[in-house]
Design a protein that fits this description.
With 204 residues, the chain is α/β, with parallel strands linked by helices. 48% of the residues lie in helices and 16% in strands. Helix 3 links the parallel strand 3 and strand 4.
Length: 204
């Protein structure tokens, strides 16, 4: 006679219990490795993004504009921190340098240090900073006292856009409204510094 504790159902149910724990134990390591790989992927992706972003910010650009020279300076409004527009005649007549920058750019800070020595020596041709991106009031406020020249905001990217300026710093030499020469990237190499100084010296 079979007692209730010895019924087939009970035996069947009892035989399943020992097998359930090993199955769970087998799934747990797999789940652990899946989660670990997912976390590792996120860390590597984010770390790579930060690395390349910082490298992009700090590495001097060899070409920051697609414009060929000579090239007419595009029509546009340059607005200062007091919301005053640079007279168009100032852009269209005479000689000047436009230096495209952003206040958060490390390469722009290096360019600022170099240009401060140039401007101190050669002051017959004015240098002006131009910021084309970001909130006007914020970037102009951040740029204040960071650069050795007056900084303007390129309203609606009217100048940088047509010139294809996509990296900063970029320097443009403008004569009577025509871009005669362009330089992309910070001037950090000794030879590049000497070449630029000689080029400016020849203008004087």
């Amino acid at each position: 006679m079979t007692t209730p504790s010895q019924s087939p159902e009970a035996n069947s149910s009892g035989s399943d219990d020992p097998g359930a724990k090993p199955a769970e134990n087998q799934r747990s390591p797999k789940l652990f490795w899946i989660i670990s790989l997912a976390v590792l992927f996120v860390v590597v992706f984010c770390g790579g993004f930060v690395f390349f972003y910082l490298r992009h910010q700090q590495k001097p650009a060899t070409q920051g504009t697609s414009a060929k020279t000579p090239h007419p300076l595009p029509e546009g409004k340059l607005i200062d921190e007091f919301n005053q527009q640079m007279p168009d005649s100032q852009l269209r007549h005479g000689r000047l340098f436009l230096v495209f920058i952003t206040p958060s750019c490390d390469a722009c800070m290096k360019e600022s240090q170099f240009l401060s020595t140039v401007i101190g020596k050669y002051n017959k041709i004015p240098f002006y900073g131009v910021i084309s991106f970001g909130d006007k009031d914020v970037v102009l406020r951040e740029a204040k006292d960071k650069f050795p020249f007056k900084v303007f905001y390129d309203d609606h990217v009217q100048i940088a856009g047509p010139l294809g300026i996509n990296r900063v710093p970029v320097k443009l030499y403008v004569e009577d409204g025509v871009i005669k020469k362009a330089w992309g990237g910070a001037t950090v190499d000794d030879q590049a510094k000497a070449d630029f100084i000689k080029w400016v010296d020849d203008l004087h």
